[in-house]
Amino acid sequence: MSFSFNALRVGISFVMMCIFYMSAVDSLPELSPQKFFSTLQPGKATLAYFCQADSPSTSIFLEELNEADKPLQDYGISVAKVNCVTEETSRYCGSEKDLMKAYLFRGHILLREFPTDTLFDVDAIVAHVLFALLFNEVKYITTLEDLQNTENALKGKANIAFSYVRAIGTPEHRAVMEAAFVYGTTYQFVLTTEIALLESIGTEDIEYAHLYFFHCKPVLDLTQQCRRTLMEQSLTTLNIHRFMKTMEAPLLTEVAEDPQQVSTVHLQLGLPLGVPVEFLVLNNIDLIVSRVESNMHIEETHEDEDNDIEGPDMDIQDDEVAETVYRDRKRQLPLELTVELTEETFNETVTASDSIVLFYAGWQAVSMAFLQSYIDVAIKLKGTSTMLLTRVNCADWSHVCAKQNVTEFPVVKMYKEGENPVSYAGMLGTEDLLKFIQLNRISCPVNITSVQEAEEYLSGKLHKDLISYSSVSVLGLFSPTMTTAKEEFTEAGNYLKGYVITGIYSEEDVLTLSNKYAVTLPALLLARHKEGKIESISLANVHAQEIVQIITNASLETFPEITVENLPTYLRLQKPLLILFSDGSINPQHKKAILTLVKEKHLDSLTPCWLNLKNTPVGRGILQAYFDTLPPLPLLAVVNLHSGGQVFAFPSDQTITEQNLLLWLKKLEAGLESHIKILPAQEWKPPLPAYDFLSMMDAATSQHPARKVPECIKETDVQENDKEQPEDKLAIRNEPTGTLRTKHWNRSNWFEEAKKQFS
């Protein structure tokens, strides 16, 4: 990090070459070219505007430049105009192309040229100029590797102010540059405009500008990650200044004098305190804890009262999804990344190109929450996918949705030429929908034609770009005469399309593969790419539905990390959970011990898994429900959710080894271990009652003459019926949507429900 920053404050020359146009706002001083260059001095700041008469096209730019004069002067950068008189010549008064640029000088040295269209307003002018001058204080990066290298280089030396802005020249970019002007010698500023880099840090609201403070100076271990603090306020100069000051302030200040005479950073910055500061003498820790907890209760009460005045009615709202939508109601989604379909455009669009269609209702909370995930998918696929992402608002086009057999929403369907529409049935989240779209790029099951191709398929080389979306590849092995078995497997492969990669091999030399993998035909081979092993399963006298269940269960990880998305999948196995709670990455020795017992079939009656509290913070609440207080980690427990609700904890005074764990499990089986908790038997329900939209519609409809509602049609008849276009379009738009039902779903609520069940 350069410390030549203070030299910049002496003065910077910023020279603008443009065409002269008289206006009321044009108040910048004018100089001749000779006079201007004679006034330039090392470190002297000047903005020179080379002018020619009668060019109204630059009037808007001149207004913004004139407005930028004062803020630039605050940073030692003055602004002036130079009149391109005919008796004097200058290369900056040359062609029209030269006059469409801005030039940044330090003294007589030209530092940077800017196209004038990039300096579109005051914020852009100030941001671009400071960004060019602070090239040592602000490091621009584009990859995660750049960020990691910068972080490692500054560990033990300095802290980092890392910011993401949507584009250079925005108001947020200007705010960051102004902060860097003040704090550039204290912290290393790092800037990016790459969304993917922000996603790698774990931020969901990627459409907003962000600023993180990386606490790298206290970190001496190069393998340890710098602690990160997110600035939750919007990126303005004042907010960043306050944030930086609070990062410098101690969390606890020891006072040895009259507290009334003490002024803290928080008071100096005018930060909101909520209630007047009280100074008390507390003689022990218990009194301090009691006092803080009492104040927290008061604050929560005030917040509840405020919520009664503003915002949605929390007693009758749909569920927590509605609260999320209300909180994010001002978030501007880039809807232009998807195509909005209407009754006139739907049929033409889905028949002309492979399309993904989201059917949603603009007034319904779950639909609007999922719309955010849908747009996130569009952002990830921008410029890389041949699939057209579209959407239909069923609140406006109910007849279109009814004709597509959409009786609940949100619903996602895939339309491909020559194929029936395929409905998406996975989790309503970004990653799962992205996986579905990417895996549908190939036809399943894939027809394998040679032993060599089969080996490439099993190794992951054949579709290596899709391996990240499917942890397993399934290959069905059949002799050419096993027609019925092949049909059953093909039906199962079609059903699993978009969720797992399946292939089929039925050539004359199929025995080569069956002998190699010691399996009798018909059979399937399951390649686990992460673990690098291939399992074989017999398919004798097995029907399509059973094959789907076999593949679904076999594709589950043997020792998964439990997350919000995959918890329901593992709960469906109806087995007690053997959960290893960890505050970060799992200990390799613990993982090895559990996987060894899995391999030896000692854990067949359990579902072994682990939970990373850093990735899934609600796990702390679950542990507190078990133990009342958060116990030391790592911690191993058996949770019998489906029968009895007992919770057993592995002894904390024992290390997690194969021998100790196996002995403990045998004691559990023999009834020799005592439970630490019995979970109450109760249904898992949403935290609040859902709106009954159908009853509301029925009540409204009962007051008017009955109208015929379009009947649901079969999925296989959709495209044929799409060709029939109704004549009375206005009548159809006003048609009641009584046939549409709502999917009550909450992406983050699985664990909250589990927590209730666990407690």
Task: Fill in the keyword field for this structure.
16% strand; alpha/beta; 6-stranded mixed beta sheet; 759 residues; disordered N terminus
Describe the structure.
There is one protein chain. The chain has 759 residues and is of the alpha/beta class. The strands form 6 sheets. Strands 2-4-3-1-5-6 form a 6-stranded mixed beta sheet. A 5-stranded mixed beta sheet has the order 7-9-8-10-11, with helices on both faces. A 5-stranded mixed beta sheet has the order 12-14-13-16-17, sandwiched between helices. Helix 2 (59-74) packs across helix 3 (122-133), helix 3 (122-133) runs parallel beside helix 5 (171-183) and helix 16 crosses helix 18 (544-554). Residues 1-26, 306-318, 690-698 and 704-759 have low confidence and may be disordered.
Brief overview:
This protein is of the alpha/beta class and 759 residues long. It contains 26 helices and 28 strands. Helix content is 35%, strand content 16%.
